[in-house]
Write a structure and sequence with these properties.
By secondary structure, the chain is an alpha/beta fold. Helix content is 49%, strand content 16%. Strand 1 and strand 2 form a beta hairpin.
Amino acid sequence: MPRVRCEKHDVKSIRVPWAEKNSRFTLLFEAFAIRVLNAAHSVEEARKLLGLNWHQVDAIKARAVKRGLARRQATKIDCLGIDEKQFRSGHDSVSNLYDLTGGRVLDIVEGRTENDCKQLIEQALKPEQRAQVTAVALDMWQAYANAVSQALPKADIVHDRFHISLHLNDAVDSVRRAENKALNKIGDNRLKGSRYCWLANEENIDKKRAEQFDVLKTSDLKVARAWAIKEMFRGFWDYRYAG
């Protein structure tokens, strides 16, 4: 690129309309690279197809995110989602903020504390946007609930289906483990190898196991009662208020 010598700022390169400052690639190529990254199964696969190294791909992604954030409008967002993801060796977490209606990630911060979550909400949303949020879907991590109550006092906290189902399954499995231990002491091994049946959706159980499970689920076992309560709750997800 042509260079100019400025008396005040020394030597400067001319800005060109087809590439960003300090980028070795045109904007057209960077747009193509982002499409390849979206379509590929992994960053490594995309990197090989593009003939780039990891640092070049990372820089392209960073510039694309910066351009996207610059274009983002402070539109109304009704429903948010917050959850955590493990990264590195599984010992660290990041907190993610989602626009559930628009199906997009709004922002990410490292950590999962109450302060981390509050910072996440405040840096991603302007005050007028925060006032318009009506509901936030969370797991049952108390730090997230506390942060939402402070940063979004008008929003309802909603626990999502995945985490509620996870807790129900954990409860059933806890009952099964305790009962299996007690039964083993008296030589009763009815529950041996039955864990999958109690946790899977009944329609997904194969025919061979289903016959055995039909006997277990209608027995007087404590785990059979716990399983029945879990199954009864499944109807909750199809409930619609008709009023």
